[in-house]
């Protein structure tokens, strides 16, 4: 059940950021759900493979920033995979990654309480 809640919250965050930022376009909430699902799958697979050497290189001291950068790269990858989702530039992808990190932290704190 937590997976579905996380998926819907992440889709809502992507959809809201797309509404606020002119350089991010999402056609519908269904597309946002698809984007959130792909982000989760790719973050769990490719993201782990990218984060591991970077965290070793930085001795784990910059793990939050490494996670943000890797998530932004994966957002750009999802941009290439999903036709109805467009992110123009790396900075908007970084903003989406930051919004997802903040939203995930708030959601995790609410579910643990």
TrEMBL record:
Transmembrane is among the record's keywords: yes
Keywords, alphabetical: Membrane, Transmembrane, Transmembrane helix
Keyword RNA-binding: no
Database matches in Pfam families: Phage_holin_4_2
Transmembrane portions of the chain: 7-26, 32-50, 57-78, 90-112
Top-level taxon: Bacteria
UniProt-recorded name of the protein: Phage holin family protein
């Amino acid at each position: 059940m937590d997976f579905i809640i996380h998926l819907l919250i992440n889709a809502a965050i992507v959809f809201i950021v797309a509404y606020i930022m002119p350089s991010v376009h999402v056609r519908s909430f269904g597309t946002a759900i698809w984007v959130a699902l792909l982000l989760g799958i790719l973050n769990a697979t490719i993201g782990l493979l990218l984060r591991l050497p970077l965290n070793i290189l930085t001795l784990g001291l910059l793990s939050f920033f490494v996670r943000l950068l890797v998530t932004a790269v994966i957002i750009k990858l999802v941009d290439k995979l999903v036709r109805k989702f467009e992110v123009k530039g790396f900075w908007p992808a970084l903003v989406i990654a930051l919004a997802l990190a903040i939203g995930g932290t708030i959601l995790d704190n609410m579910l643990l309480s």
